[in-house]
Amino acid sequence: MAKEARGEVNVHMSPLLARVEGFVRRLLAEPERARRGYPVVLLLLTLAVWFPALFAGLDVTNPDSFYHITQAALHHSPSEVADWFVRGYWAYTHYEYRPLTRVSLLLDYLAWGRRPLGFHLTNVLLHFVCAAVLAAAMVRMGAPVWAARLTGALAVVFPQGQMAVTWINGRQDVLCAALALGAVLLLLNWLAGRPWPHLVGAAALTFLSALAKEPGAVTPMFMLAAALLVPTQRGLRTRLLAVALIAAPLGLYGFLRLQAWPMDQYVKQNANQLRPLAVSVDKYFGEVLAPRLHELWFLWRRMGIHVAFSPRFPRLFVEQVAFWAGLVVLLRRHRRLLALALVWKTAFFLPVHNLYWNPAFTHYCYLPNFGTVWLAGLAAWELSAYAAARMRRQMQTAARWSLVALGLLVLIGYYYRQVELKWPDRALLLKGGPRPPAAFCRSLQGPEVPFDFGDEAVALPEQ
Q: Residue 251 domain-assigned?
């Protein structure tokens, strides 16, 4: 009886499985059918994963969130805001030139008042924009559509983004990344034959990304590689001229940046952080290109064969095996995309790390780690295809997607283990998130003025 019952279940399940596989096969064959639905799914995934970040409140251990929000909120007159773009602004130890980031904080304050939830929501939405635009740009560079969409999903839950997304002052990183990725996408559109307004838009977004944070100024380095490697009907001279035109407005940015913070003052301020290029290259290979490979080697050298009993070894080993297996697959199938991903990581890491780097803050890695996500998404797609092809032939398509779904679930679990986010309780949800402090702390404006984030707080008026 039991065998007959199981047989009856199999009879009923086989048509259902065939129908599911047929649907998935049609979706793979015609990915444009899901083009409108993908951004919605990606947005829902972003909000679900980063929901606890909305209730993180203000980081009271670091003055940056207090300082930058209050300084933006207390300057409403057009002339004062214009000064941010012309002269920069005082950032409690030095002059700084990230005016677009400060304007975005001001807009948040005008929209949300002093409630931290609004500032966090903007960061989360900008993170979603980065993931969506990365997926679109990868398609323009020749990646399979669903591989690019998988990469966008990986970008949403990639643990390296935690500080940039959850810390309000990480706005500079997510805003710079969103604008830089948008500029790259517009250039790729122009290379694909779109009209010249796309080129103008790429130049404008590149300039704006630099106004959000300094790494945006190196975006043309990646654009040059894309212009040389991405297949296009446009001539080589035209492509090089296009990149030069995109980079031209950055001359104005450099002039204004040096007016706000002259190079001699910059070197004096950051003398303890400037480092030889060799140190930056070592950190690049040790932490960004191959995550934690050096840790695995040091563990092995210290413990020998007993390294297998180290609590850290299983995770490090799995990460490295997956990374290098994926790299081998990409060398066979996607050499052009592999090269572009490595250029992305290099362009947005080495110049910034060599000139200004605080290793305590992982938000500096937000931009270059999109290259890591890029490699991981492509490799996961190819490895799932390799595994699925060796399963039952009639279930190959469904098996591939099952492996992808399983991998995403594992990554989300890994994300929750790595990211220190506390899920808000019901009482906090009913209150609409943490209440803002009774007074925001601020420092006095101007150089040579001691700053204090203690009792001398200046209360901001309620809206």
A: yes
pLDDT tens, position by position, 332-371 = 778 888 889 889 988 888 766 656 555 556 777 888 888 8
Single out the residue of 163, 165, 148, 174 nearest to residue 373, CA to CA: 148
Total count of residues recorded for the chain: 463
Give buried/exposed letters for 29-39 (b at 16+ CB in 10 A, else e). Answer: eeeeeeeeebb
User: Looking at the domain assignment, is residue 116 inside a domain?
Assistant: yes
- How many domains is the chain partitioned into structurally? 1
Q: Is residue 57 part of a domain?
A: yes
Question: Contact at 8 Å (CB) between 254 and 216?
Answer: no
Which of 232, 137, 127, 240 has the alpha carbon at shortest distance from 182? Answer: 137
Q: Is residue 438 in a domain? A: no
Give the Cα separation of 149 and 31 in Å (integer). 10
For residue 351 the two structure tokens come to 């110049």
pTM for the whole structure: 0.82
Span 34-73, pLDDT tens digits: 677 888 889 998 998 888 888 887 776 666 777 777 777 7
Give the range of the structural domain holding residue 101, as residue numbers without chain letter: 30-430
Radius of gyration of the chain (CA): 24
d(CA 29, CA 322): 27
